[in-house]
Amino acid sequence: MNHLADLVAALPAGRVLTDPDVAGAYARDQTFLPPGTPLCAVVAESRDDVVTTLRWATEHRVPVVPRGAGTGLAGGATAVEGCVMLSMIRMTAVRELSPADEIAVVEPGVITADLDRAARAHGLMYAPDPSSYEISTIGGNLATNAGGLRCVKYGVTRDSVLGLEVVLPDGRVLATGRRTMKGVTGYDLTGLFVGSEGTLGVITAATLRLRRAPETPPATFAAEFPSLRAAGDAVAAIIAAGCRPSLLELMDRNTLKAIDDWKNIGLEPGVRAMLIGQSDDGVPGAAERMAALCEENGATFVAATSSPDEAEELIGVRRLAYQAKERLGTCLVEDVCVPRSALPVMISEIEAAAERHGALISTVAHAGDGNLHPVFIFERGLAEPPPHVWAAADDVFRAALRLGGTLTGEHGVGVLKRRWLDLERGEVSGDVQRGIKNVFDPLGIMNPGKAI
Amino acid sequence: MNHLADLVAALPAGRVLTDPDVAGAYARDQTFLPPGTPLCAVVAESRDDVVTTLRWATEHRVPVVPRGAGTGLAGGATAVEGCVMLSMIRMTAVRELSPADEIAVVEPGVITADLDRAARAHGLMYAPDPSSYEISTIGGNLATNAGGLRCVKYGVTRDSVLGLEVVLPDGRVLATGRRTMKGVTGYDLTGLFVGSEGTLGVITAATLRLRRAPETPPATFAAEFPSLRAAGDAVAAIIAAGCRPSLLELMDRNTLKAIDDWKNIGLEPGVRAMLIGQSDDGVPGAAERMAALCEENGATFVAATSSPDEAEELIGVRRLAYQAKERLGTCLVEDVCVPRSALPVMISEIEAAAERHGALISTVAHAGDGNLHPVFIFERGLAEPPPHVWAAADDVFRAALRLGGTLTGEHGVGVLKRRWLDLERGEVSGDVQRGIKNVFDPLGIMNPGKAI
């Protein structure tokens, strides 16, 4: 452990946490995977701290697992045996916020919703809004290329990133991208780091694109359907009509039932799905137009409003979804994405998999993007999902791929999805990705065993 | 030349053009750089043709320069000595166009505007619209990550690409990306290929994102300004007001004068800049609102219209810009991009460089993106730009970098910008990019000497 003493000596006091219980608190994310035992945790406060830590890790061949708030759902930030858990949570500076250029330069520990609020003070917004955005960090969002509810209009995290500052495993500092809206000098290294789950280097700053915040509150609708197929048709009709929703969320019967059992929302027996949508374009009648398309496609109940309070009530139902499910057991939150037209078929496939394996699955979907979160609910107290849950998940993943979809829309591969990875990417892609990993991290110390 | 006989034998009849004059016709793009002499040209008609050609090239270590329509402005598709010019112009299939999923799968030889027209038949559009889009190909647009006039609202080519099929130099076929709107399985190889200027492999198909076409014709305005600073202020005001223009083009006095000398547009003596903009949001009064913001910022004349014919007249002035300049001499079309707030300063820098070196520069800008095209006009008949032009260009590039900008917003590095490349990207980035190049192209046969 002399190595560790070197690290403690090289960093300012208090940065290295060597007490096993303390370091252990940094060892897991929101997955139930049993983590390895970290050697220590380092809580970085500056780029220099990161450089020092990585140089030391390179010298001594110690694996490094970077982490933000630990809200990940795929195991990307779980400890590997003997690693340094490198927490970025204290690097919280907003280095710059330029309303004129509509950009912000931030450190990775900034909470996503905090950046959004800082931007709104200038009439701007930071668009990416993963469900965790009140507690997750920009750095974690970058590592997984996080999505969110507003993606359907504003795109994923990648679409809001212009440039990065990255510390490579050997301690060199790499600047990628630029401050400008456009630019094609050299390969797109920015895109390479976004979504790389900490396997190539550690992001210490990001130049992010802000957007004009809508001037009026969004118009909101909700609709209940007697079948998932009808709800899927309504989604297609809304997109085809050019409604440009800024949010379009689908909940299945199991989700609605879990919410109803908890909060008594008056769920009618025949309701099989609910769609909730918003438009922030400021076009009068936008919510009513989407609601009318739902009715044309078989909705049995619709409501539309421009009142923020009423909107909050409708959206509030969606916000309860995860908590309602957690009341029923331990949740494995999954994340497949299919071409939008395949959404109804994918939901049927999920239902069939649930029945086939006797699994309880309840699904919410970012419907406008074809991104589904089937939540597998199982008995509390188990260390990991039981075999019938994995068997159902396996069916769901294979169905998504068969429908032209992907294993993960916005959560990342982490550890959880690695065993399915080669079904999607093929051999050549795997070779190329390992080659790229080797360019940045020839010793394989950056978050080994994750993502690729 | 036995090697060449092998290639001729391996490909279907007619694919290999060995006559030096015929092959030479494929040797250059729209730059005036003297190209090398190609060994031959191959006009591929299928992915198999590309695989055969690259396998042969790998076996015999022959450089390969892929090309589309040859409309590039940075020399990316100019021949290197003894290379195969690999033309993709005959791979023109639209393999799929799905209105439900809003995607198209196309081969690289498809003309960009043709895809846009095919999409519009379904109420959709293909958003990227480089000025060359009636003659340039999707493959060429992908290679340079082409921009265009609509970028200000819809982003660059990268923002419309979901996945690629690529033949690697050793003949292996790589599939990148996906058909879905979101996805984070593995590193972003799609982004890596877009803008890589043919240095990593040859794109043989692309899955592209289409968008809903606006339902009403765009609303258009034009405004004349007594100073560039005033026009720059108007741009800032339009963006800050959340107008979301779908086009926002700036022309300087030299550009207007060239157009006036040719077509007599009645240019007033005091006019130093013109701004032309459009909104396709369908919001009533959108053009009038932008025009009013121009007036508030000092415009001496404004016009706004929703009539397609009148719009065509206003936009027509912008369309004449390049041809008007070509009447005056040979044009070096440059392509710097700066943060939007630096646009007026950058224009002043361009004017100062012109005066300092006695160069004639006339500038158009995609103003909403901060992307400027200073066009250096010099004496016809010269093989390449004279020293005073390069000296002025050097000043312009350095000024753009000083202002936080980039050497190229949408044309690429090609050959023309290589000597300035290290000023922008720094040593670590150069190392990493060469490392990535080596993963895909260890023999260095793909478009050597270009881009990185």
List the helices and strands and how they pair.
The structure is a homodimer of 452-residue chains.
Chain A: H1 2-10, E1 16-17, H2 20-24, E2 40-43, H3 47-60, E3 64-67, E4 84-87, E5 94-98, E6 103-106, H4 112-120, E7 124-125, H5 138-144, H6 151-154, E8 161-167, E9 173-177, H7 189-193, E10 202-209, E11 211-212, E12 219-225, H8 228-240, E13 247-252, H9 253-263, E14 273-279, H10 286-296, E15 301-305, H11 308-319, H12 321-326, E16 330-333, E17 336-337, H13 343-357, E18 360-366, E19 371-378, H14 387-402, H15 421-440
Helix pairs in contact in A: 1-3, 8-10, 8-13, 13-14
Q: Explain this structure to me?
A:
Chains A, B: GO terms for molecular function: (S)-2-hydroxy-acid oxidase activity; FAD binding. Chains A, B: This is Glycolate oxidase. Chains A, B: Pfam families: FAD-oxidase_C, FAD_binding_4. Chains A, B: Keywords: FAD, Flavoprotein, Oxidoreductase. The structure is a homodimer of 452-residue chains. Chain A is globular. Chain A is built from 15 helices and 19 strands. The mean pLDDT of chain A is 95. Helices cover 35% and strands 21% of the residues of chain A. With 452 residues, chain A is of the alpha+beta class. In chain A, strands 12, 13, 14, 15, 16, 17, 18 and 19 form an 8-stranded antiparallel sheet that branches. Among the domains of chain A are: 119 residues, Uridine Diphospho-n-acetylenolpyruvylglucosamine Reductase, domain 3 (2-Layer Sandwich); 107 residues, Alpha-Beta Plaits (2-Layer Sandwich); 83 residues, Alpha-Beta Plaits (2-Layer Sandwich). At the A-B interface, strand 9, helix 7, helix 8 and helix 15 of A face strand 9, helix 7, helix 8 and helix 15 of B.
